């Protein structure tokens, strides 16, 4: 269990969901639950597009 005094307060969640299309090619979506973590989601999305 995390202690807020040690780790800070949660400010949001970034979720990466991976799918496969009809041809078997993977693709993904990146979603956030708050605007506060949008910059993190952009970094994840940009990095995944490199692969």
Description:
With 51 residues, the chain is α+β, with helices and mostly antiparallel strands. It has one domain (12-49). The chain has two helices and two strands. It has helices spanning 4-7, 38-49, and strands spanning 14-20, 26-32. A two-stranded antiparallel ribbon has the order 1-2. Strand 1 and strand 2 form a beta hairpin. The chain is elongated and about 50 Å long.
Low-confidence stretches: none
- Termini separation comes to 34 Å
Numbering strands along the chain, what is their spatial order in the largest sheet? 1-2
Q: Domain count, please report it.
A: 1
Number of helices: 2
Choose one word for the global shape: elongated
Strand-pairing-aware structural class: alpha+beta
Strand content: 25-35%
- Order of helical and strand elements: HEEH
Helix content percent band: 25-40%
Based on CA atoms alone, the radius of gyration comes out at 14 Å
Mean pLDDT: 91
Per-chain topology:
Blueprint: H1 4-7, E1 14-20, E2 26-32, H2 38-49
Antiparallel strand pairs: 1-2
Entry summary:
The protein is 31% helix and 27% strand.
Give structural attributes:
single chain, 51 residues, two-stranded antiparallel sheet, elongated
